């Protein structure tokens, strides 16, 4: 019992120390005002914070080099669309230049392939969408127009920016109580270099081989559940490469951090198979060949299941 208390105090000191020794994003005051207004506007609605994309860990204060947790952000972006379609308001906290809901359907390097030139009667050159693309693009644009007022977009790049914004948004969502849902799909670094241990300027290669000593990032799930937004329905993600660890590691996280759900998947099959793990149950969601041929996304199934579990969570209050 006393060991557990010591561990809790130690963990608390660790994450509090992180915020005391790192600088917040430069525009955090503007973001706080906008988030507060967005939350007030949707106070009577269910609201989801969806985090997406990877974080960078700078190696210098004037950053030239960094360690990157790569993630395209597909799971977060596609899931956000389905939450919006189910009537949720969404705060989409995503890595700058990663995929965004609705925008993800238009690959930036294929943009010119969507268009063709036309000449009007006056001889002026114009542009139009290629005929065969109009139905699909029109559907995406229509869906976006119906949802855009219920989505707030906020970007991060570094680990520090992400963790500051995670705390900020979570605290602002507290007023939604059990109607708030946190879907933590971002690929967050486990290691970082504290700002006071970083060199100020670019690391020089003529100094010889580079040795790095990285510190563990505090596990923010603990204060998230116990302090920042205790009544929310919180979902974390776990990626493994060993199937034998898939369920046990997920349940271990639930017991340790006291949140509600872990979405667990293997690296090799993450697009076609996931496990929805709670303390009491495990459900396997899979895609069959017919669904894959019809371009059904597994995120649609994930979000439907999560909303069912959120309904149960809300009915307990």
TrEMBL record:
One of its GO terms (biological process) is coenzyme A biosynthetic process. SUPFAM superfamilies: CoaB-like (SSF102645). InterPro entries: CoaB-like_sf (IPR035929), DNA/pantothenate-metab_flavo_C (IPR007085). Coiled coil: none annotated. GO terms for molecular function: catalytic activity. Pfam families: DFP. Residues 175-275 form the DNA/pantothenate metabolism flavoprotein C-terminal domain. Belongs to the PPC synthetase family. This is DNA/pantothenate metabolism flavoprotein C-terminal domain-containing protein. It comes from Argulus foliaceus. The lineage of its organism: Eukaryota, Metazoa, Ecdysozoa, Arthropoda, Crustacea.
